[in-house]
Amino acid sequence: MANFTVVRGFLLMGFSKTWELQVLHAILFLLIYLVALMGNLLIFTLISLDRYLHTPMYFFLKNLSFLDLCLISTIVPKSITNFLSHRHSISFLGCVLQVFLVILCSGSELLLLTAMSYDRYVAICQPLHYEVIMNKRNCLRMAAASWITGGLFGALYSANIFSLPFCGSNEIHQFFCDVSSLLRISCSETYIAVDVSVAIGISLAIFCSISIAISYGHIFSTVLKIPTSERRSKAFSTCLPHLIVLLIFITTGFMDHLKPPWDSASVLDMLLPMFYIVVPPTLNPVIYSLRNKDIKISVKKLIAWKHFPEGLITKSFP
């Protein structure tokens, strides 16, 4: 009979064992986290307060900001603590929670980005039917479906992964508990349940990618037919940032999860999760606010409302 050790916790080894580099990583992660936190909180607050932003596009953007906050808060604060301490430990339940929340937020975000691409397709390609198709009930259903599906996948992944036996070293060569690193330290030689979960997840990701590609194919085809360059530029400026972040999110996620678990850990394994866990929550607020006239106007109204709450701008922020 095999001798398995009961694992009560794991060690997150991070990027380096050198103290100076760990401090540098902690400072870098802290700056990234503060940018993501302030940006997403600002967008969430603006959309909640300004009734002129209560449209389907901004409803989905508000949900995206909340998901980004949850995703980066699940990983980065714990990583900063580990970088600055000599323990580098995470409890078994803490690791389970990290895996569950990362899959929940990532899966929900992918589905939400798919809904956002459909929203842009209807707005640009079928503008006369926009209010009928993207009504409040349908938007709520899309958002709820994204959250529920992400939660189901999170529960499925975490249950299957942590049902495997772990033996030997409990060192995870990553800055958080991820699926590939956990499979490397598992005693099990077969991962049928995990493979099924991954196959289902990849199938869903492929379906979302195809749906997004079809939506943007129709969008770009319609935009190129617009006679005025100003309207074409406005349509492209709305869609291209969304598409860029989406491509980063999907391609790096695919590369990370399609890598065989028995391969040895490398620097690339450390960097890939950065691009689908840390980078999108940081870039999304910047991309959606810097090029967005409505967000800029809402920021100005919020500043004016804070200084003159009983002036004319009270009509904008009820």
TrEMBL record:
Matches recorded under Gene3D superfamilies: Rhodopsin 7-helix transmembrane proteins
User: How is it placed in the membrane, per its record?
Assistant: Multi-pass membrane protein
Q: Which GO terms describe its cellular component?
A: plasma membrane
Compartment list: Cell membrane
Which residue spans traverse the membrane?
23-47, 96-118, 139-159, 191-214, 235-255, 270-290
Give the range the annotation lists for the signal sequence. none
Name the principal localization, coarsely classed: membrane
Q: InterPro entries this protein is in?
A: GPCR_Rhodpsn (IPR000276), GPCR_Rhodpsn_7TM (IPR017452), Olfact_rcpt (IPR000725), Olfactory_GPCR (IPR050516)
Please give the Gene Ontology molecular function terms for this protein.
G protein-coupled receptor activity; olfactory receptor activity
Fetch the PROSITE patterns from UniProt.
Answer: G_PROTEIN_RECEP_F1_1, G_PROTEIN_RECEP_F1_2
Q: Which domain of life is it from?
A: Eukaryota
Similarity comment: family membership: Belongs to the G-protein coupled receptor 1 family.
Q: What is this protein called?
A: Olfactory receptor
Q: Tell me what organism the protein belongs to.
A: Phascolarctos cinereus
GN (gene name):
LOC110200269
